[in-house]
């Protein structure tokens, strides 16, 4: 006489539960890793974005004033010597002198190599600055021209552009 054996195979409730728990644990682990990587590698562009946002209307007013000046700007970078020259001309084509000009240079994707520099007036609206030790590649350069010194300094012209250091 044969005896029938009752063998259960296949998926049961515990298998489904364990599979679901394992799936969501993997998703949570990957999400945690992505959040950690995003926060630990984000350098941020603005140290205080909230205050910069509050100054937005002031920046718009400054830009309108700058547009009304009608100045033209020419820039030149000599990558062999690291010399950066900015020339400012007024609406009539005369050089704009007696300004304090400062600048900053950095990479587009990171702030690791960012540094500030100051320009020296060389006459006829031209200002020069030495930007030493730039590695080859593309750099973002920004500069601001102002009248006065220290806390009484009023920025009257800003500009931003890119420069290329040849290999």
Q: What is the fold named in CATH at topology level of one domain?
A: Immunoglobulin-like
Q: Name the shape in a single word.
A: elongated
Chain-averaged pLDDT: 86
- The helicity comes to 25-40%
The helix/strand series, from N terminus to C terminus, equals HHHEEEEEEEE
Category by helix and strand content? alpha+beta
- Shape-level CATH architecture of one domain: Sandwich
Q: What is the gyration radius calculated from CA atoms? A: 30 Å
**Uncertain regions: pLDDT < 50 for 5+ in a row?**
none
Q: What is the CATH superfamily classification of one domain?
A: Immunoglobulins
Number of helices in the DSSP assignment:
3
Note the gap between the termini. 90 Å
Q: Tell me about the largest β-sheet.
A: 4 strands, antiparallel
Give the beta-strand count: 8
The level-1 CATH class of one domain: Mainly Beta
Concise structural overview:
Strands 1-2-6-5 form a 4-stranded antiparallel sheet, with no helix packed on it. Strands 4-3-7-8 form a 4-stranded antiparallel sheet.
Descriptive keywords:
single chain; 167 residues; alpha+beta; Immunoglobulin-like; 4-stranded antiparallel β-sheet; 29% helix
Blueprint of the fold:
Blueprint: H1 13-41, H2 49-54, H3 56-69, E1 72-78, E2 83-89, E3 100-106, E4 115-118, E5 120-123, E6 126-130, E7 137-147, E8 154-165
Antiparallel strand pairs: 1-2, 2-6, 3-4, 3-7, 5-6, 7-8
How would you explain this protein's 3D organization?
- The protein has 3 helices and 8 strands.
- It is of the alpha+beta class and 167 residues long.
- It has a domain at 70-165: Immunoglobulin-like (Sandwich), CATH 2.60.40.
- A hairpin with a 6-residue loop joins β7 (137-147) and β8.
- The longest helix is centred in the first third of the chain and has 29 residues, at 13-41.
- The chain is elongated and about 110 Å long.
- The model has no long low-confidence stretch (mean pLDDT 86).
